[in-house]
Design goal:
The complex is a heterodimer of chains A (about 350) and B (about 160). With about 350 residues, chain A is an alpha+beta fold. In chain A, about 40% of the residues lie in helices and about 20% in strands. Chain A has a six-stranded antiparallel barrel with strand order 1-2-5-4-3-12. In chain A, strands 6-7-8-11-10-9 form a six-stranded antiparallel beta barrel. Chain A is globular, with a radius of gyration of 27 Å. Chain A starts with 8 loop residues before the first helix and ends with a helix. Chain B has eight helices and no strands. The interface between A and B is large, with 60 and 53 residues.
Chain lengths: ~350, ~160
Amino acid sequence: MRRSLHFGETTIKPLFTQTPSLNTRMLLAVAASLLLFLMDARLDMFKPVRSALATAVYPIQSLAAMPSSFSDWFSEMFQDRGDLRERITTLEAQALIQNVRMQRIQALERENMRLRELLGSSFRLQERVQIAELLSVDLDPFYQHVIIDKGKQFGVYEGQPVLDSRGVMGQVAEVSQLSSRVVLLTDPSHSIPVQIVRNGLRAVVTGRGLGEPLQVEYLPHNADIREGDWLVTSGLGGRFPVGYPVGQVMAVDFPQGKAFGEISVKPAAQLATSRELMLVLPGEKIDFSLKIPPVDLNADSSTNAPLMVPEALQQETPETLPAPDAESSVESPSDDGN
Amino acid sequence: MAINSRPQQIWVIYVTLMIAILLMILPLPDMLRLARPEFVVMALIYWTMALPQRVNIGVAWFTGLVMDITTGGQLGVHAFSYAMAVFMVARFHLQLRQYPLWQQAFTILSLVFLVHVVSMLNAPLTSSWHIWMPAVVSTVLWPVVYAVLRKIRRGFQVS
C-alpha cells in the first residue's frame, strides 16, 4: 500500500484537485446526518421514505439470511423416512388432542359470548391470522427487532399484533413492500397492557433487552401478584386482542423504600427460537357494541331480565353465531369429523 | 504502472463493503451477538488508509446509511459515526500507514470504540462491559482483516 504513494507526479494530482477539503466534507456529513436524524425522529411524513429504503435493502437482508435458510432446506431434504413418520404420528396425536379440546372451547366460547351479550359488553372473538416467516438476520443487538417476510403486499400494517404458537411476540413497527420489522416484547421501548389470569389485576409489562426477562411496571406493594401467575393481554389500548398469553411471573420482589415492586416475567412466546409467526388480522370481529337493544331493554325494566334472555338470543343467533348454543354439543362432533 | 488517475477496479471496494455489511447482520448465537466485530468500520478504515482518494467521508456516510436502514435503527446514526471515524483516518492516513500493525490495531480499538459508543447513544440499553467487546474483538481481528483486504487490493489492482 505504500506503493500508492510512489506513483509519480502525475498521480499525486487527483489528491489535490478534489474540490472540497476534508473539513468541508465532514461538515457536510455532519449536517446531513443531523438532518436525517431529525427528519426520521420527528416527521411522520418521512415514514414512506423509510419504508421505501427498507424495501431497497431487503435483498441484502435476504442474502444474509440465505445460509441459515439453506441449511434448513438441506436438513429438510435429507430427512430420514423414519423420522418423518415419527413426526407425522406425533403431529396426528397432537391434532387429535387439540380437536378434542377445541370442541369444549367452542362450547365455552359460545356460552361466554352469550353471557357477554347479556351484559351488553362488546367482545371480539375469532381473530383471523396470517402466517409469516422470520428472516434469520441479526439486527442491532441493542434493539429487539426481527424482520419477517410479509410486507405491504400481504396487507401487513403498522401496529399489527404478532403471535407465535405459545403467546404474544410483539408488534409490527415498520412495513415495507416485501418485509416488515417486528418489535419484540423484550425491546426496552415496548410495553404491553396485561392482566393476571387469576384475579384480573391489570398492569403494564415492559421489555428490558436481549436475554433479560420482562418486567411488570408500576405495581404498588399491596398488589396481589404471585410467582407463577399467568399474564394475558388485557386488550386495553386496542392494539392487542384480548386473552393471549404474554408470560408467567418468575420472581416478585417489593424492595423497601421503593414505590413499586420489581416483578420479572418470563415471556410465553419462544422469542429466540420461533421461526413461524402469526399476524393477527383485524377482520371477523363480532362486535356486540352496535346492538344496543338488549341494553336498552335491560335499562327499561330490570325486573324483566329473565324474560328478555331468550328474546335477545333469538335476535342474535341467526346473524352472528354459526349455530345456536343449544346445539353446540350436537354440532361439535361434525366439526371433528372433517 | 498506473499513470492515469481514473478509478480502477473500484467495484472491488464496494463488494468488500457489501460483504462487511452482510457479516454485520449474519445470524449469530446470542452470546456472540454482543461481541460482533465492526467489520464495516474496519473495511472502511482500510480502504481510506490505502486509497483516500477513492474511499472517503462520502462513501463512509452512504455505507453508514445503508447500515442504518439494514439494521433498522435510527437513520443517520451509523452514517455519522462512520463518517467521523473515516474523517480521522483520512486526516492521519499518512502517519497510520507507517505504523506497525499492532500500533494500527490500537488505533482501530479507539476508533471502533468511538463508533460503537456513538451508535449506542440512541440505544435504550447500556450495560457496562458489553460496550468494549466489539472494539476488543475488532482489534484482535485487525491484522487478519488487513492482510485479507491487502491481498484483495493487490490481486485486483484496485487503485
